[in-house]
Amino acid sequence: MKKLVLLLLIGVVSLTSVFGATLTVGAKNFTEQYVLGNLASLLLEENGFQIVERFGLSSLVARQALLTGQIDLYADYTGTAWVTYLDQEELIADPDELLQKVRELDAENEIVWLDRINANNTYALAIRREDHEKYGFENLSDLVAYWNEHPKEFVVGVGYEFYERPDGFFAFAEHYGLNIPNSQVSTMDDGLTYEALANKKIDIAMVFATDPKILRYNLYVLEDDLNFWPYYHISYAVREDVLNKYPEIEEILRPLTLYLNQDVLIRLNYRVDIEGLEPKIVARDYLEGLGLID
Q: What are the DSSP E strand ranges found in the chain?
């Protein structure tokens, strides 16, 4: 029934017009992105498009590929666009206002941001739950106050990109007044920070708010009480010329805005990272369960 509603929304004529047209869908290089990329690919394919997938890209490579037409669309994050792509420093506390401002500025680059998904995959710092109980840290200010007094007691593990990006670790340290030696910062692949923390190779880990490994390893996420990180809500970014040619894309992808949320996304990520299923299988199962694809 839901699939029938979607088809009615899009319209038979428009579906006929896109049949056989080719779109290139991108995705970044971590689990959630593979899931989101497959969700878009499967929906578009179901509705008549031929799909080429370019998955496993870094943020900046994916962005550049979109700008240059090497990909036509991919899921990205409003906070990443605001800080990293559009070089903005203003802190915007309302997620809808942030999306609107990203849309306005990125329109100059001929990029259209579709409606946002209600999932905020922001950066965060986490500690072992036993250390939460030991030290009593509730938020990042608690951690920083103690860490400044004991600068060599903790080692923090961060992803390579987080280490370098303008809204990454050192910008966080400046915002919170943290002053520790660089030797206390260990860089690694994003997904390894959780295991390194659980195995006591590090004491603090950079994490993503929608990552199921937080649950798996029973980690405690510290509150960003000074509101350093912007919202990182998910939206599909589409080249304007592609959307003008195939306006049906927006309606085809709209169910993801309607049905995906933070809890659902964590569950989908869990099936990949913890249960070991392929992202395409997880995406297909989810869409079939909603009746959106056969």
A: 22-28, 50-57, 73-77, 111-113, 117-120, 123-128, 156-159, 185-188, 204-208, 219-221, 233-239
